[in-house]
UniProtKB/TrEMBL annotation:
Keywords: Cytoplasm, GTP-binding, Hydrolase, Metal-binding, Nucleotide-binding, Ribosome biogenesis, RNA-binding, rRNA-binding, Zinc. Monomer. Associates with 30S ribosomal subunit, binds 16S rRNA. Residues 112-259 form the EngC GTPase domain. The gene is rsgA_1. This is Small ribosomal subunit biogenesis GTPase RsgA. Its main location: cytoplasm. Binds 1 zinc ion per subunit.
């Protein structure tokens, strides 16, 4: 069977990056699933299992973010003994990164080359504002277009009102209440996974991601968890990350429950997720105003005047603090690595 890779998002940019690897025993493919050392990859001839070539392993030893992940476009090499290896990862257009919570402060790439990153939050029980803000910052940081999906809209008396309220947390982000059960707004979601497009889902366990993937695919491709407890807290079921191909083209990426998914060390995602605060901050007297108690702080004026919610500023402060801690850790790690190198000489 031959697959038309353009339905999966293959385009001229990827094709030109691929050209310098091109040889008769090579092919281009997209990673559907990445396990330790082995990837499931789709190329024009079908699905294969591929191991990592020495060069890829070597690069990744110094920087784990260079390991192939779900959504990556890779160069496959087909050996005479039928083995298949991944010889290279083509430059990524967008990336979702998880900051590992251990001391080693490098990021792990969860998913690559998605066009839209949907933050998935159940409308019931009460949506968690802080989690939405955090995940939206991560979505912005990925470089893809963020989207906020409020799942299980059938469990809310007035989903549109909840959506309007939450839109304040999400400047510049479309907010969509959806229900798989009632088939509410599912076609609107499908637009983001139309042929050539990739939609990634980011949300806590039990948010309804697998149910949505199955609805988009039109057939069960992911296990859906049975919620046993009455308060709606789910068990953790999805431990892997899969790129699911939709029957009509397009793809959906499910990322696991978000425990441990954090921000990396850049403030860019934060600035975009909090564009309302960034706009006001442009009028602060000092360029590097921290909106604590500096004179001439426009953000403090906005809070006092009621045009900016105090909890919104509190969320911004908390996430900014995390980013600062994280970048300090990275600096320390880099300094430590340099020290180790010196000692070895
Ligand atoms: N009422 C209602 N329940 C839904 C809807 N979508 C999903 N659910 C339920 O929510 C629960 C969790 O759904 P999952 O799809 O397994 O959640 P998940 O985000 O994939 O969870 P993990 O796999 O743990 O990451 C299941 O019991 C679903 O039946 C919906 O539209 N309406
Ligand atoms: Zn200020």
């Amino acid at each position: 069977m031959s697959h038309d890779l353009s339905r999966l998002g293959w385009d001229e940019t990827f094709a030109s990056a691929y050209r310098r690897f091109d040889r008769s025993d090579a092919s281009a493919g997209r990673v559907l699933r990445a396990d330790r050392g082995v990837c499931t990859v789709l190329d024009a001839t079908g699905v294969t299992r591929a191991s990592l070539a020495g060069g890829v392993l070597l690069t990744a030893a110094g920087d784990p973010s260079r390991l192939p992940c779900a959504g990556d476009w890779v160069v496959l090499r087909h050996w005479p003994d039928r083995r298949v290896t991944i010889e290279g990862v083509l430059p990524r257009r967008t990336t979702l990164i998880r900051r590992t919570s251990d001391k080693d402060s490098t990021g792990q790439v969860l998913a690559a080359n998605m066009d839209t990153v949907a933050v998935v939050e159940p409308i019931h029980p009460e949506p968690d504002d802080a989690r939405i803000e955090r995940l939206l910052a991560l979505a912005w940081e990925s470089g893809a277009q963020p989207l906020l999906l409020l799942t299980k809209s059938d469990t809310s008396a007035d989903p549109e009102a909840v959506a309007r309220q939450l839109a304040e947390l999400a400047p510049g982000v479309p907010v969509l209440p959806i229900s798989v059960r009632r088939h509410h707004n599912i076609d609107a979601v499908r637009e983001h996974a139309r042929p050539g497009r990739t939609l990634a889902l980011l949300g806590r366990s039990g948010a309804g991601k697998s149910t949505l993937v199955n609805a988009l695919a039109g057939t069960p491709v992911m296990p859906v968890q049975q919620i046993r407890d009455v308060d709606g807290k789910g068990r953790h079921t999805t431990a892997y990350r899969n790129l699911v191909l939709l029957p009509n083209g397009g793809a959906v990426l499910d990322t696991p429950g978000i425990r441990g998914v954090g921000l990396l060390d850049t403030a860019e995602g934060l600035d975009r997720a909090f564009a309302d605060i960034a706009d006001i901050a442009a009028r602060c007297r000092f360029d590097d105003c921290r909106h604590d108690s500096e004179p001439g702080c426009a953000v403090a004026v906005a809070v006092a005047g009621g045009s900016l919610a105090p909890r919104r500023l509190a969320s911004w402060r908390k996430l900014r603090h995390e980013i600062e801690v994280e970048s300090a850790r990275q600096t320390a790690r880099l300094a430590g690595a340099a020290g180790n190198r010196r000692r070895r000489h």
